[in-house]
Design brief:
alpha/beta; 259 residues; 5-stranded mixed β-sheet
Length: 259
């Protein structure tokens, strides 16, 4: 089986793929101090609980956004699975689509995986809006190429900044308020965050389409995508497992290319 690992700045996802489908998926908080041994103890117990064994893992593909985590993930793969992981974004990892950005520009591996999965499932001329620690807008050209995008602060990051910068403002959860105009501090904050992000999504997607000279489809992914989809018709498609599916597709492409 293939073990796909997506390490984000906030959470990490480990998913088992049997060659056709993802059969199990687990999530943990991203921690740069977590050792390979700790990863294994945590993951092996969850695998056994789902009636799988670490011995079932024959290949590993990794996407790492959080700096400092790759070393221990490589150790995990080498020491406990006996495999060398395919790391998306490294020179040895081939991509099924071109990347048309400035020379020597670094593109996040999660964005590359999103592009591959979005093109495979929804075609080109697409914008992927990924609600993570940052809110990413990734533009997929007609031929599937990644051609750039936009990075904005994530929703929860904005909420934390709002609270920490002002002692008078409480910590709140993001939700859709009943009205745009709030009648108390919490309602005002919820409105500012929710409708502010809805307006940002609508405005950026509209400007990207205008700049590209055509109307692009918009695919939302990430835990908060369904919430913001309630406030706008711009998010036409919701696809929550986009990144992890993209990793499986990239791994399959490398296996087929080398074969």
């Amino acid at each position: 089986m293939l073990l796909a690992i997506d390490v984000g700045n906030t959470n990490s996802v480990f998913a088992l793929h049997d060659g056709k489908h993802f059969v199990a998926q687990w999530r943990c908080a991203t921690d740069v101090t977590r050792t390979s041994d700790e990863y294994y103890v945590w993951l092996s117990q969850l695998m056994e609980h789902a009636s799988y064994s670490p011995r079932d893992v024959s290949n590993v593909v990794v996407s790492v956004t959080a700096a400092g985590t790759l070393f221990n993930l490589r150790l995990l793969c080498d020491r406990y699975f006996g495999v060398r992981p395919l790391v998306v974004g490294k020179p040895e990892c081939a991509l099924p689509m071109p990347v048309r950005v400035d020379p020597n520009a670094r593109v996040g591996s999660d964005r590359l995986a999103n592009t591959v999965a979005a093109f495979a499932a929804h075609g080109g001329d697409t914008i992927v809006v990924d609600f993570g620690t940052a809110t990413n807008f990734d533009v997929v050209a007609a031929d599937g190429a990644y051609v750039g995008g936009v990075i904005a602060p994530g929703v929860n990051l904005s909420l934390k900044a709002l609270h920490s910068a002002s002692a008078a403002l409480p910590e709140i959860d993001v939700t859709q308020p009943e009205t745009v105009v709030g009648r108390n501090t919490v309602a005002c904050m919820q409105s500012g965050v929710f409708w502010g992000y809805v307006s940002m999504i609508e405005g950026i997607c509209r400007r990207i389409s205008k700049e590209r000279g055509k109307q692009l489809k918009v695919v939302g992914t990430g835990g908060l995508a369904p919430l913001f989809a309630r406030g706008t018709d711009v998010l036409e498609i919701f696809d929550n497992n986009l990144t992890i599916r993209g990793l499986a597709l990239i791994h399959a492409y490398n296996v087929n290319s080398s074969g």
